[in-house]
Amino acid sequence: ETITIQELSNRMAERGVDVIKLLMKQGQMLKINDTIDADMAQLIAEELGHTVKRVAESDVEEGLFRIGDEDGDLVSRPPVVTIMGHVDHGKTSLLDAIRSTKVAAGEAGGITQHIGAYQVESKGQKITFIDTPGHEAFTAMRSRGAKATDIVILVVAADDGVMPTTVEAINHTRAAGVPIIVAINKIDKPDADPQRVRTALLQHEIVVESMGGDTLEVEVSAKQRLNLDKLLEAVLLQSEVLELKANPTRPAEGTVIEGKLDKGRGPVATVLVQRGTLKVGDILVAGGAWGRVRALLTESGDAVRDAGPSTPVEVLGFQETPEAGDRFAVVENEARAREVADYRLRVKREKAQARGSAARGSLAEMMSQLKESGRKEFVLVVKGDVQGSLEAIVGALEKLGNDEVRARIIHGGVGGITESDVSLASASNAAIIGFNVRASKEAREASEREGVEIRYYNIIYDLVDDVKKAMSGMLTPEI
Ligand code: GDP
User: Fold this and answer.
1) Which of 83, 84, 88 to mutate to test the pocket of ligand 1 (most atoms within 8 A of CB)?
2) ipTM for the complex shown
3) What distance in Å separates the CA atoms of residue 260 and residue 229, rounded to the nearest whole number?
4) How far apart (Å, rounded) are the C-alpha atoms in residues 447 and 64?
5) Distance 180 CA to ligand 1 centre (A)
6) Residue 88 near ligand 1, beta carbon < 6 Å
7) pLDDT tens readout for residues 10-60
8) Fewest Cβ atoms closer than 10 Å to its Cβ: which of 3, 218, 441, 457?
9) 88 among the known binding-site residues?
10) d(C-alpha 51, C-alpha 37), whole Å
C-alpha cells in the first residue's frame, strides 16, 4: 500500500508543502508526486492531527460491535460495580465481606475462587462486583476502550477521612461519567467520624443525601459486616435510576476482566458479558486472541452452558491469552475470528511503530481533533509541587477560553506524575501538565506507550501561555 504525497494532502485537506516539511523532519527528502507507504502516511496524518481510519479497518471491524441493534429485545441486567478508595480504607475487606455473605452462585460455604469478578444476590436481584479494587485497573481498562463499570462504590474510612487517593478516585470516576455511592467504612472504630467524611466530600463536589445532595451514602463496617445489606440496596436503587438494559438474545459482546495462562488449562480469561449471551461452542475474538468456547465456569467453579448480560465467567478455549480490558465479540466462524485477530495484531504493531512521534494527547493534535469534532473542551490533568501553585494554575486555566473552547481539568493533584495520571489522561484523551514536578519512570514509559503528552513547566506564565496558544490553534507540534 502506497500513496502519493499529493493524494495524501488532498485527502487531509492539508497543503502539500506542510506534508513535505513533516517528511523532511522524518529524514525523508521527497517531492509532491513521490509515494510513501501506508505506515508513513498514517504517521504524517496523525502528526497533523487527523484520525486515521484505514479502509481495511472498517472492513474488518465492521459489524463486530453492533451497537444499536438491540431495540425491542431489551431486558434489565444486573449492575456492575467497582470499589475504589484510599489504601487501607477497606476496599478488599469490603469486597471479601460482601462475597462471603452473599455469593449468588454455588452453595453457601462453597469454595469460591478469585476469577476477577463475582456476583451476589440481594432481594432476589443480582449485582456483579469487579474483584480488582482501585481506580488503576478501572482506568487502564477504560483507556483500552472498555466501559465495564456502571457504579463505583467509593470507600472512605471514617477514622481517616478523605485522602489523596480518595480524590483521585473521585476524579477518575467522574471522568468516566460513572455514578458514585459513598461507603463510609470502619464505623465500628471508636474514633470514627462519619460526619467529617461527609463535610470533606463537599469540597470535591460530592453532596451526599443526608446533606441534601443526590449521592447515596451508607455507613458500613466491613470488619463487623454492618450494613452490607443497606449498601447493596443502595446499589440496586442507583441501578434502577440508570435503567440498565441489554439484549440477551444476540451474539455476546463484553470485556475481558482478567487473562492468564494456566498450566493445566491453557489460556484462561474471565470475561464480563455486556450484551447478548455467551454459549459453549461460540467462537470469539478478544483483542488479538481468539478461540472456541470449550467451557464456561462461574466463580464457584461450576460449569455453565451460557452466560447472559452482566455475568462474569471464566472462558476456556482461547488459543492465546487475551489481556484485561480487551473487548470481546462472538463471530460467525473461525475464519472470521482469525481474520480479525490477525488484523488487530498487525494494527497494534503498526501503531507501536508509529507512536513515538504521534502523541495522541499532544496539545496541538488535541486542538485539531477538537476542531474537527466540534467538541468544546480541552482536557487536562495538572500536577503541581504545592497546593498553592496548583490552585493558581487551575484557576488561571479555567479562566482561559471563549465560546468555542475552554480548558477542563479532570484531575489536579500535588506530587509527581504517576502511571495512574497517564492512564487517566489516556482514557480521557487528555494531556498532562507538570508544574515543578517530574514524571516517574513508570509514568514516562506509560506515556510513551499510550501516546500521552506530558509537558513540564516551572513558570506559571509559560504554562498558561502555551495552553492559550494551543487553544487558539497556534501551537506548533513538537517533533
Ligand atoms: P484496602 O487497602 O482499601 O483494600 O484495605 P483493606 O481491606 O486491606 O483494609 C485495611 C485494614 O483495615 C485491614 O487491616 C482491615 O482489617 C482493616 N479494616 C477494613 N475494614 C474495617 C472495618 O470496617 N473496621 C475496622 N475496624 N477495620 C477495618
Assistant:
1) 88
2) 0.99
3) 33
4) 29
5) 20
6) yes
7) 777 888 888 999 998 888 888 888 888 888 888 888 888 887 766 455 555
8) 441
9) yes
10) 17
